[in-house]
Specification:
The chain is α/β, with parallel strands linked by helices and 220 residues long. The chain is 27% helix and 30% strand. Strand 7 (94-99), helix 3 (102-114) and strand 8 (118-122) form a beta-alpha-beta unit. The structure holds S-adenosylmethionine.
Length: 220
Amino acid sequence: MSKVTEISPGVYKINGRFATENLTPGRKVYGEELVKADGVEYRIWDIYRSKLAAALAKGLKSLEIRSGSRVLYLGASSGTTASHISDIVGGKGTVFCVEFAHRPMLDLLKLCELRNNMLPFLADARLPETYASVGRVDMVYQDVAQPDQERILIVNADKFLSKGGAAYIAIKSQCIDVAKKPEAVYVESIRLLSERFDILEKYQLDPFDVHHLFVACRMK
Ligand code: SAM
């Protein structure tokens, strides 16, 4: 018998593992386990495959995604983490998925056909004016692994977020400066982000994802 506990709106713990309610019952996205309890199907959220799940495992408290939220996701790849956000925001919410590589976009397109609340944009996240049709969002989530990650978040926040809006970023130190110690890279990243955001929480994601700092912030 599976014991299900809701730890944040739309996020569950099932026998010690994170899970979201499957928006498309019977379908897996990345080979994750499906679990049924009291007639509801959940998807186990793999902390080694999703940095947002890893951040939850590290103690992230301010998960600002809710049923009905509008989330701009930069670096959606084939949709692993975006699909769990899609479960959380549900049928009344939307996940706008920006990805510039063609290969993962092929898988993302198939996923978006099944999930009506996920909209794909083949675009460079450095150029938010190319997907301006997105409009205002409640949250920007960014996982692009680029040397100018902080600036990419800031130009998108300036365009799509209002004051007080939430932003999450997974900073990959090795992409910013492979010669520097990760901690030194993070200090500079936090300094850059602090120009535009209040920093709410930050977590190094090892051992789930090495050389990554996950930062939750709020637009000033
Ligand atoms: N966030 C995904 C997940 O958890 O399921 C994994 C993202 S993967 C680490 C980074 C993705 O960002 C890659 O698919 C890459 O093609 C994409 N990316 C990198 N730079 C980008 C840019 N400037 N614009 C759009 N996508 C970008």
